[in-house]
Every structure is written in structure tokens, then in C-alpha cells.
Amino acid sequence: MTRQVWTEARLFEPQPDGRLLCTVCPHACRLDDGETGLCRVRMRSGDAMRTATFATSVVHAGPIERKPFYHYRPGAQTLTLAAPGCSFMCSYCINFRISQFGRPSGSAWDAVPVDPQAVVARAADAGAVVALSYTEPSLAVELTLALADAGRHAGVPVVWKSNGFLTDAALDAVVPVLAAVNVDVKAADDTSHRALTGGALQPVLHAIRRLADAGVWVEVSTPLLPGVNDAPDDLRRIAESVAAVGESVPWHLLRFTPTFRMRREVPTAPDRLAEAAAIGRQAGLRHVYVERALGPAGRDTACPGCGDTVVRRELWGPVHSTLIDGSCPDCRTVLPGRW
Ligand code: SF4
Ligand SMILES: [Zn+2]
């Protein structure tokens, strides 16, 4: 157990009733002095907000494919940080001990303050990208901005794995500094999304579109939760919402493994993942991925021009790409991504 350190936070507005409105996420907590928000890691102190998220529980090195990103710097290493806390309460969260900090299922505080310059220097030495993942990075806006500021001078990008549950004010702050974001779309409609996560769906779809429109590289992930969101009609609607942002947006179908409040459920069957991938392609998506359950073919990138395989990925690591400056070596089609 470590000591929580509260530092100056951004993104709040005084309200006529004397409370402070936190404008980081759509939960829109209105706080009296000394109160923490639903996330438990942002707090009102006097006339300002403070955050405990300028800290991390982990410093992990690993391939960027594990976030997952398949069209952003394939084969790059990441240095991943995770400040405790989340704006969602998903029943299947594999990282629930740190994501659910402050709630009955969460662990005690185990994070230590971050020195952004030191993190960026370590990433630069390894040729790595800095990632915020495992917990919800939008609760760590200030840390993200500090890492991006340090990274800009060192040529180290910052990427997020996020639930996409952000306000426009939070997006205004982070869109200019993020290189890439993988966002989860976990349900097809608002009622199911609220039941699964505790938050509304529309802000997530809005954030995906804003990030993509601003030129941040976006990939989308959907965990296939048996009996929860894996009905063909639900998957079709999710795929269509991704395709509406762009048919080139990579869509990752994630296999559920029993954990947390869903530890008595069964893992997603491979044929459900194959069926979901087919639904994604029918919806127009050109790059649909399944990391493990469908073998190597689930991880390959095909050229949308000629159909040749142009990027092959081994499990957890090496990437074999024939792309030349992001283009197919055969038909010269430019592949969507940041290569
Ligand atoms: S980040 Fe969201 S949950 Fe946390 S205090 Fe702000 S509005 Fe509330
Ligand atoms: Zn081609």
C-alpha cells in the first residue's frame, strides 16, 4: 500500500448552488468541499479540484499489439502506465483491482507518483511509445498532458486505451496531444451499455468520431460477452456504428475470459468470434481482427486493394510487414494507419 498524493486538477466549473462541476466525464459530478466523484480519484478541495491520478500502479514494457493497436506503428514497444480508477464499473473487467479503486472490489491504493520526464526518457531509450492503459486514462488528463509535453521534445508519442467516456471539454484538452486511442464499444444500445458499464453509450460514439475527425489514429475494440452483447443483431449494430466513423477503422473482437463478477460465465466460443468477424465485414469494415481464437489469420492485415496479406503478426510480438511507406508492395494501395 502507498500513500495517495493529490495534485492540482483541470476541468471543473463553479455552479450557482456553490458546488463544483467536474467536466472530465459525462457522470458530471457536482461536488461539495471534500467530496470525491464517482471515480473516487478526483476530489473537490476548497474552490478547486484535485486528482490522485498523477501516479501509476504499473510500468510495463510490451508490444503495441497488446493494447491492441494493429495499424499504429506495428511492432513498436510501449511503456504502459495506469493510474488507479475508472468511470465505468464493467462486470468483466480483468483489471478490476486497480480500475475499481475506491469501490468494494478494488484494491488498496498502490500507485506511486510519476515523473513524466523520467518516463519519457526511459521510453525514448527503448524507442517506445508511452501508453496509458488497464485503467481509464481520461481520469488522468493532467498526467497525459504532462507526458505528452515531455514526449513532444523527445519524439515520444502518447497513446490511450480508453472507454471513450469523455466530455467535449476533456476531448478539447487531450485531442491535440494524443497520437492514437483504442476505444471500447461494449454494447449496441444505451440501455445495455448502462447496464454493463454504468455509463451512457452516446458519449463514447461521439468521442470516437471527434478523435477520428481530429486526426488521432483510432481503433475500436469490442469484448464479446456471451449472452450480454454477442447476439448477431447487437454485433451488427456495433459494427455499423464503427463503420459510420470510417470503414477503415480497425475493429478488434476480444475474447471474454471469466473474471470478476462474470467469473462463472463461459469464455467466448471461437465460432462466435468468427461469426462476429463476418458481421463486421458485412457492415463494411475492412480490417476486423481476432487476436487468438482464430489463429494467425485473425491477426493478418489484407490489402483492401488486391487482397494480399501485407502484415502478419505473431502472438505477443513480432510483426512481418511488406508495406512500403504504408502502401501495398503489389498494387500500391495506401493502407489506413500510421506506419
Ligand atoms: S471524472 Fe467523472 S466520475 Fe470522476 S469526478 Fe469527474 S465527473 Fe465524476
Ligand atoms: Zn494490394
TrEMBL record:
It comes from the Bacteria. Its cofactor is [4Fe-4S] cluster. [4Fe-4S] cluster binds at residues 86, 90, 93. PROSITE patterns: RADICAL_SAM. Binds 1 [4Fe-4S] cluster. The cluster is coordinated with 3 cysteines and an exchangeable S-adenosyl-L-methionine. It holds the Pfam family Radical_SAM. PANTHER family: PYRUVATE FORMATE-LYASE 1-ACTIVATING ENZYME, PYRUVATE FORMATE-LYASE-ACTIVATING ENZYME. The keyword Cell inner membrane does not apply. NCBIfam families: AmmeMemoSam_rS. This is AmmeMemoRadiSam system radical SAM enzyme. GO terms for molecular function: 4 iron, 4 sulfur cluster binding; catalytic activity; metal ion binding. Keywords: 4Fe-4S, Iron, Iron-sulfur, Metal-binding, S-adenosyl-L-methionine. The keyword RNA-binding does not apply. It comes from Dactylosporangium siamense. Residues 71-286 form the Radical SAM core domain.
